[in-house]
Amino acid sequence: MKQQTILGVVLFSVIVVAVIFWVYRGPSDALPQTGQWWAIEGATLYTMKDEKPLKNGVLLFRGDTIMKVGAKVKLPKDTKVIQAYGRFLTPGLVIPNTRLGLVEISLERSTRNDSMPSRKAVRAAFRVVDGFNHNSSLIPIARIEGVTSVVSRPYGGLISGQSALFDLWGHPQQMTVRAPLAVHASIPTGRSAFAWLKLRQAMEAARFFQTYQSQYTRRKVRKLPFSRLDLLALLRVVTKEVPLVLDVNRAADILTAIRFASTQDIKLILSGVREGWQVAEQLARAKIPVLLGPPFNLPSSFATLGSRYDNAALLHKAGVLIAFASQGGSHNIRSIRHEAGIAVAWGLPHGAALQALTRNFYQMVGLGKTYGTLRRGSKANLVLWSGDPVELSTRAIQVWIRGQSIPMVSRQTQLRDRYRDLKNLFRQP
Fold first, then answer.
1. pLDDT by residue (tens digit) across 122-137?
2. For residue 103, what are the contacts with CB-CB under 8 A and spacing of at least 6?
3. Could you tell me the residue range of the domain that residue 9 belongs to?
4. CATH code at 247?
5. Is 223 helix (H, G, I), strand (E, B) or coil?
């Protein structure tokens, strides 16, 4: 009788735990229950779970979420099927370090929202999400080339402000994936020792503010050299709520950044890192991820004397998590996959290059469970390619953002179609 009682208690406990798990399971299992079923059949699927593709695979999605991926998938009734034999399917490209939605015409000040008109070194409170233009004509140009998400970031000063992550479709609230995403800073080519001093002062002030926030509000503690809004933004860094993205290129400064992250106990992502190959082992041991700008083999300053084309390959070989990023522009950011192709030509494995275009950045910022892979529960940000995505001649055939089929039209394609026939030049309006 006693054994039966114990068995009953154990069985009841298992049922309770199962019910709790079912109710409170993660967001990746909260799959849509309504909407049209879509299936893409026959394509070579780069799922990004590993570097090997799945040939002649099937991807099933509903609403904004991927439901099933595999070699054989049983399709529900009324599923609309897209035949994609001979094509390549990947997650959408994500590009960090852009000014997309912030700068329309680089030389026209009235179209720039990427910085604040100030000489302050610390501008942590500045938020690009407040100035993002979801109607920018540059967004469709990037979108039809397979770019489904971007990080728009601030510039200027030592600590420039707070970036945001956007999906490139929908109204402004729908487009915003996370804001703030990170606080951005940069180490200048000259006076780097002074820049590190100011960064340490900023972190110390944020921790002081964290401890004495109520007294600071009532003006019962010493005055700090930064505004309250700046301190609130820096507080997110010292509490590890958001990472600090630091622009740095020189190997010596990269080593200083590794020590800085360790002593300050913060989440750090390095950007640029042109001489990163020289200290790849130290970066790998510190588990600091890297956003790589366009590849160069010639220096543009004394901080980039060690630039070389195989920087990405050497960092990856050492075990550093890398992602490809733009050089901070809003035009021609679509060329990032060609830059990935250069890295492949110089030794980076093909699969690793695709992961650096799609998956790796989301892992850096804690969104890897829902973005950047082709698996059950991930967002249906998809690109169907005519061929290998890192080949120059490949084009995006169709793009889906959150399951929505995107019109493959931009201002450039409209101008092309308008003037393709020379007769249109002389046609009366």
1. 999 999 999 999 999 9
2. 111, 112, 113, 114, 329, 330
3. 1-30
4. 3.20.20.140
5. coil
